[in-house]
Amino acid sequence: MSYRKFKSHKIKIVILNLLLIQIKIIGAQPNDWQDEQIIGIRNEKTHCIYVQCSNIEQAIRDYLEEFIFYESLNGSWKFNWVKSPDLRPENFFENGFDVSYWDDIGVSSNWQLKMDGMSIYTNVTYPFTKDTPHIKGKVLDHYAKNDLPNIVLIYLNDIGNGDLTNIGAIDYNTQNIDKINGVNLLPLSKGNFEANTRQTFYYYYRQSSLETIKVGFWKLVFPHSGRTYEGFQIGKDEIPGRVNGNYQFKGG
């Protein structure tokens, strides 16, 4: 073999080895749960959680359950425990996914103590063999279904007499719950689902005949059989309006 052919053959081998190394590197990219550089995905930005009250008495009562968008997560949840992420069911969060065969777990609680897995009380010794990034983490999928009420926002053309120019219904069961976490609904009613909705907390004080609440030019109303939207008194900003006792509601 001549020197020229030998040199050409050697170059081809080097190129081939480089390509194999590149393919190996690409193929070795870890999953997101195995990448030590990823410490969070879709984390919610830091914020203060508070509930806006209309008066001192309501704040002292502190009955959050009476506010319109306060939803406790405590209760019985469906859960499914697997040994590694690749065994978890896909798309379990979609409507219609059958979770009837899943077990139940009380929330809040500790699934390592109540159900599956091993409780770990150590900050020195690793409870598993270190083989980064190929550590198989256990996965527990939670599932709970909450039927949130249909809310109606009414635009008031004239605050004086409450004439209605437009009615827009928002069904919370069809929206992304993360983006309507009990706050300002006005951007959503305009189709802006990317706006920062953590600005005005709407609440609903269900007591006696309190049925609606107004902020600015918008009135928020719970649907009620036999009642029409015109029958709700407007009330002052952020103070629920009472039902007009003299109004003849249709059908009730």
From TrEMBL:
Superkingdom of source? Bacteria
GO CC, sorted alphabetically, is: beta-galactosidase complex
- Entry keyword set: Glycosidase, Hydrolase
Which GO molecular-function terms appear in the entry? Answer: beta-galactosidase activity
Q: What Gene3D superfamilies does this protein's entry cite?
A: Galactose-binding domain-like
User: What Gene Ontology biological process does one annotation of this record name?
Assistant: lactose catabolic process
Alphabetical list of InterPro entries matching this protein: Bact_Beta-galactosidase, Galactose-bd-like_sf, Glyco_hydro_2_N
Q: What is its EC number?
A: 3.2.1.23
The main enzyme category here is hydrolase
What reaction gets catalysed by this protein?
Hydrolysis of terminal non-reducing beta-D-galactose residues in beta-D-galactosides
The residues covered by the Glycosyl hydrolases family 2 sugar binding domain are: 71-137
Q: Which family, according to UniProt?
A: Belongs to the glycosyl hydrolase 2 family.
Protein's UniProt name: beta-galactosidase
Q: Which organism is it from?
A: Maribellus comscasis
